[in-house]
Automatic annotation (TrEMBL), chain A:
Every ChsH2 rubredoxin-like zinc ribbon domain range: 21-52
Domain ChsH2 C-terminal OB-fold as annotated: residue spans: 54-124
Entry protein name: Zinc ribbon domain-containing protein
Residue ranges the record marks as coiled coil: none
Organism annotation: Streptomyces luteolus
Highest taxon in the source lineage: Bacteria
């Protein structure tokens, strides 16, 4: 039995391998970029509103800050209570072109000790969790010159 | 009455002042009972403190809790019924951690509009164990649900991000963060309403478990049961009621952020983009305080004390800068100099803060105003800030709710 690979949220990212990108939207009237995507309205108060078109975000950025989760988060975060909790690292990444900060989990195995504010990272496909018939996919941040 | 003296007195007041006639709390803790019981105790004690009969209150405003089921969503009516229906105007408000400020603001605007002479404000909560969690169900259109589902990002995770950022940008140290806890615990030990009334050492902070790197258990505030209530009135009513010189609320800031919001904020997964629209002159927290200072016509150098939302030790330091108690990046120095401890230039969280209380969400912003009231009255006992004349509270509710109150005497 193979599990179906399904994005944890539809249309937030796409592509395989090198072509993997986070997906935002851009307003045709003012050029503002949104992530998570806005598909119904532009949130720039100085904009009368335009068409919102899908746009891939920059692949690389620099660490704005980072932390980890030493305790199991509550639902709806999926984790098996029977298994010992494995801390993971959470990274906030500044994208230069978009001038925005985007959160994400680091690729498994990266610890806070391996990161610093300013470290260059890139977005890569990852797996959030698996259940009986689904592999839930997500994005991860990976140090570019990963140790 | 000497008209000239009255006129001189009037000048010291603002036409937009409202009087704090009564202030009270139910002690914070984990009491295992319902939020209504806590709220009723705080309300009755606030009415007694004010010397006002509940039946003479023209309006009641409840700060809602999302943890008490339907009665929590309509807390104004819930408290009114528990105190005994008497036909008052009723309002229930919700703005996450800023709910209490919204309740105070609602009461104040009713008084200033002449819709009510006396308003009772009540907030109470019975908190869950462990991390705050989102409402149930499968709700991918809710940012609060998404941050847990997609990232497992608890509140402490955000506090960890802010703390690391301060360490990298401003050179704050783990010892600085621990010192905030030590300071607040020392003041909380003097407060009979605080949940934690033990002094804490830097060694104890350092020995507590890491929750979200670099923050430890004792860097992060707990969740508590608790309740706070205020009786607010017009200054005229206070004078007629025999309170010629009451503590007065001079400003209440309940502003939203400005677009683009460039500081990563709970529960967001990303900031707004500043590529097209320029970032606002002040980041959100600083803008909350600025709006309060502007409305009061009071500057940070006039403050006797401040009560800020120390959800984490590092976040308290951030507030020093956002309240303009010091310049950007200078908060740790202000702390190290002792300026924010009891006896310092501007004590911060003389109540003990969230570090000593733990958060009872809808009650907390009201409790901050209770502390200002007692300090400005000069009745804060062993934790009294000598000669306190002006105080500010500051806090921020999830989803973009500013909360800051300036009180004077
Ligand atoms: Zn637009």
């Amino acid at each position: 039995m193979t599990r179906q690979r399904t994005p944890v949220v539809a249309d937030w990212f796409s592509g395989e391998g090198e072509n993997f990108r986070l997906l935002g939207t851009r307003c045709s009237a003012c050029g503002s970029v949104f992530f998570p995507r806005e598909d119904s309205y532009c949130r720039n108060p100085g904009c009368a509103g335009g068409e919102l078109a899908e746009v891939p975000l920059s692949k690389r950025g620099r660490v704005w800050s980072y932390t980890d989760g030493r305790y199991r988060p509550p639902a709806p975060y999926a984790s098996d209570p029977e298994q010992e909790w494995e801390p993971y690292t959470l990274v906030a990444v500044e994208l230069e072109a978009e001038r925005m900060v985007v959160l994400g989990q680091a690729v498994p195995g990266v610890t806070p000790g391996q990161l610093a504010v300013g470290t260059e990272v890139e977005v890569v496909p990852g797996v959030l969790n698996e259940d009986a018939d689904t592999t839930w996919t997500t994005w991860h941040w990976k140090p570019v010159n990963g140790r | 009455m000497d008209d000239l003296a009255l006129e001189a007195g009037e000048r010291a007041m603002s036409a937009r002042d409202v009087a704090v006639l009564g202030a009270a709390m139910h002690p914070w803790g984990k009491w295992g009972r319902g939020f209504v019981e806590y709220g009723v105790k705080a309300a009755r004690d606030a009415l007694a403190d004010a010397g006002v009969d509940w039946r003479d209150v023209g309006s009641i405003v409840g700060a809602d809790t999302v943890r008490g089921g339907y009665p929590g969503y309509v807390s104004g009516a819930t408290f009114a019924k528990a105190l005994g229906w008497q036909g008052a105007r009723v309002t229930s408000v919700y703005a996450a951690c800023a709910s209490g400020a919204q309740a105070v603001q609602t009461a104040r605007t009713q008084i200033l509009a002449g819709l009510a002479d006396v308003v009772l404000v009540v907030g109470a909560d019975a908190a869950p164990k462990g991390f705050f969690r989102p409402a149930g169900g499968d709700r991918p259109d809710d940012p609060d649900w998404l941050r847990f589902r997609v990232l497992g990002a608890t509140n402490p995770a955000y506090f960890g991000l802010y703390a690391r950022r301060r360490m990298a940008v401003h050179g704050d140290t783990l010892a600085d963060f621990a010192q905030v806890k030590v300071k607040n615990a020392a003041m909380g030990a003097l407060n009979p309403y605080a949940r934690y009334r033990k002094t804490v050492t830097t060694e104890e902070v350092a020995a507590s478990a890491v929750v979200a790197d670099p923050l430890r258990l004792l860097d992060i505030c707990a969740t508590s049961d608790g309740a706070a209530a205020l009786v607010l009135s017009s200054v005229d009513f206070a004078r007629r009621h025999g309170a010629p010189d009451p503590v007065r609320i001079r400003a209440v800031s309940t502003v939203t952020p400005e677009y683009p919001q460039t500081v990563l904020d709970l529960p967001d997964i990303a900031t707004d983009s500043a590529a097209v629209a320029a970032p606002p002159a002040r980041p959100f927290r600083a803008a909350i305080a600025h709006a309060a200072y502007e409305e009061a016509g009071i500057g940070p150098d006039e403050l006797s004390l401040a009560e800020v939302y120390d959800l984490s030790t590092a976040l308290e330091l951030q507030w020093y800068e956002d309240l303009a108690l010091c310049g950007e990046g200078e908060a740790a120095k202000l702390l190290r100099d002792g300026a924010t401890a009891l006896g310092g230039r501007v004590p911060v969280n003389a109540s003990g803060g969230l570090a000593s209380f733990g958060e009872a969400v809808p009650a907390q912003a009201i409790a901050q105003v209770c502390e200002l009231t007692w300090q400005l009255r000069g009745t804060a006992g062993a934790r009294q800030v000598p000669g306190a004349r002006v105080g500010i509270t500051a806090n921020q509710g999830l989803f973009g709710h500013g909360s800051s109150v300036i009180a004077v005497r």
